[in-house]
Each structure stands twice: as structure tokens, then as C-alpha cells.
Amino acid sequence: MTVLLPGLLTAMRVGLTAALAVVLGRGAPDFAAAFWLCLAIIGSDLLDGQAARRLAAGSTWGARFDVAADGLYALVAAFMLGRLGLVPTWYPAVVTVKLAEFLSTSRLLSPPGSPTTLVFDPLGRLAAAGFMTVPPAVLAEYLLTGRSGGGLPAAVTALALGAAAVRIARVLGHRRPARQAAPSPQAAKPNRSFNARSSSSSRCSL
Q1: Residue 167 in contact with residue 109, Cβ under 8 Å?
Q2: Rounded distance, CA 178 to CA 160, Å?
Q3: Furthest-apart CA pair in the chain: how many Å?
Q4: Segments of the chain with pLDDT less than 50
């Protein structure tokens, strides 16, 4: 049962994301409940990774499920907050494009025969953490001040675009080693006259 714990925590994150969509999508959004749901989602994301490492329960399927749950939360939160005017209108598109870029470049960068097609990088991890953090930060600012947040989404957008540019550059430079040119028949042919002269001069020197 303990081996299933990381997967259960990830599945709980999917359920919490569905609850977040309901809370923000109804006629009178409950922003306080949405804030606490976001914190619970982030907490489950931290716990499932630690549980997988401590229980040695990591797997390719689990890693893909974790990324899918994170991506679902980031997309749902971005679109719901964008619909309510709490993040810039272009922010949901940035989240969508970055997620699509991560999946496509991971496939291109993964080694042949690798059991997983997920390739992570430091900038990408920071961008993902930003996507997770923006919703509760924006909701907290709105609850405290009544204003919509624009600074953090803009900063995370710049980070995400930079991370995407680095990965695309890696893909363009990710080429197989060029094959060495086969030696020409003339270069491969031994120089008999030179060898004959060398051996003759060697005999003479003796």
C-alpha cells in the first residue's frame, strides 16, 4: 500500500484541480477557497516526490502522471484566472505553449531507447515552479488588496520563454556525430617505392 502512496497523492492533486475549477467557475467565485486549494495542490506536489524517493517507488508511469497533474493544474488555474481578469489575457497562452514545448522537445532530446521521454532542465523547473506559484500569489494579492496581479505572471512568462529558447537551441544543436569520411583508395594504398627506398637505405646503412 505504501508503494501506491505517491500515485495516490498525485491523483489527489487532480481531484483538487477539478475542485479549483468548480470553485472559480461558478457564478460567485470563492477566492479564499481557491487560494487554499492551490496551497493544497502545491503541498501534494511536494509530498508525492518525497514519498516516491523515500519509498523507492519512482517509475516512468509515475513521473508522467506527476507531470500531467502539474500541467493540468497550471492550465486550469491560468485559464480560470484569465477568465476572471486576475492574470493578463496572454498568460494562459504562455502556459499552454510552454507545456507543449516541454513535451515536444523532451521527445527530441531523450536518448534513443530511453524508458522515459521526459527531459528536465534547471530553467524549466524554475518556470514550472513559477506556474505553480502564480495562482495562489495572485489570489492572495486580490484577497488582500482587491487588485489583480500582473508583476509575477510577467516575470514567470519571461522565465518560461527563456527556458523554452534554451531548450529549442539544445534541440537544434542535438545532432548525431558526423560519420568519418572513408579514406580514399589512393591514400590507403601503401607507397611501395618509398618503402623500397627506405628498406634499401636501411640495408646500406648497415
Answers
A1: yes
A2: 32
A3: 106
A4: 178-181, 188, 192-206
